Amino acid sequence: MRCLLGFALIHMSVALNTALRVSQKPRFYGVTTRGSVCFYCLSSKQHLEARARWYKVGEYHEEPDKGEEVKAGGRIDIRAKALTEGGCLCIQDVHVEDRGVFFCRVNNTWGPGSELQVARPLSRIHALHKTEMKDGLIVLHALLLAVCIAAMLLRQRKLKLEKQDSEYEEPETHHVYEGLAVETCGGGLYEELSVYYAQPEGAEAPWE
Fold it and tell me: Is the pTM of this model over 0.85?
């Protein structure tokens, strides 16, 4: 019984060791447009003939079998690698649209995938122009902020002055002789007084 169990374990380990494993190199490639890139699909059974197919998806989390199969033609060339037909995928004159994740499949066994990132080349003049525009926008925002703050301060000061003016009341002017009616009796006051004193005692003053 133990012998049978031992033979079964040995058979399982041999089967696992002989299972096809697929690897890809490189796992990541970053290039600029107009460049070139090559991905390699490697089989653990290099002494056996096999055929590799390539599929492209947008992200790693997407299912590779639902991706678009990559065909040779134009800028894309698929070559043999060792005994694996189609084991090498090369892309010439890389465009931004070529970025994504490429999976190879050998006899229904999928590789781990290789990601391609493509960036546009940035010239020094363009970079300086963008930097100057950014600095100009920062200065403009600062000026606008200063203008807004100054306008708010001026408005607050104006409202404060208007409030002070509304609280201030002009004091009333009271005259000591206001309402005092002095009758001159048709002549000057001092002239009438002199006439009054010149009259004999008992005579009535003209204003009485």
Answer: no
